[in-house]
Specification:
The protein is α/β, with parallel strands linked by helices. 39% of the residues lie in helices and 14% in strands. The longest helix is centred in the N-terminal third of the chain and has 12 residues, at 25-36. The radius of gyration is 18 Å and the shape is globular.
Length: 207
Amino acid sequence: MSAREPVLNPVPIEDLRPTQITVGFREVGEKRLQWREHASGEKGSEFLGRHMVPVVLGPKEKRYVIDHHHLVRALLDEGVEELLVNVIADLSRLKKTEFWIFLDNRSWCHPYDEEGRRRGFDDIPSSIAGMTDDPYRSLAGELRRAGGFAKESTAFSEFMWADFLRRRLKPKLLADDFSAALTKALKLARSDAADHLPGWCGPDPIV
């Protein structure tokens, strides 16, 4: 399906629905800071114009976000009421179960909870505000920015890295000392144990 024309009329963020259960709240915090740097005057409008959110139309013509969940949640938390969306596909004619199965097969949804467990489609919240925190997703995002792995096109690649780290780093370390957790994550990212993950950058160089 090809992308349709962007919706140039602003859409209320409260009307948007997520297609995943979690986000990384630390990552959301970074997006909030980014927004604050552009929030005033024309800079805010320009920022929103450059960050149109891709959505699909689902049953009852509800708009479902299929990317940029962290940004949308950050804008909501910052009190932004509306944003522009790009309708990728109109699936409003599909029944609810058929809709979610189609999204799943296209890798347009991620029904996994904060412990990395797959859940039913009914567990995906009905609002952006309803998404819960996965701290390992925040760690994965910071790991990528630190050069631990390369950004690439595989759907939900940072969630794959989050699940890899979840099984190797204790939650207490992540909660108590994020910097130490990131240092360990960088070492893990260069290990052979991670060579199956998207964006793997190879083993540690020999010194």
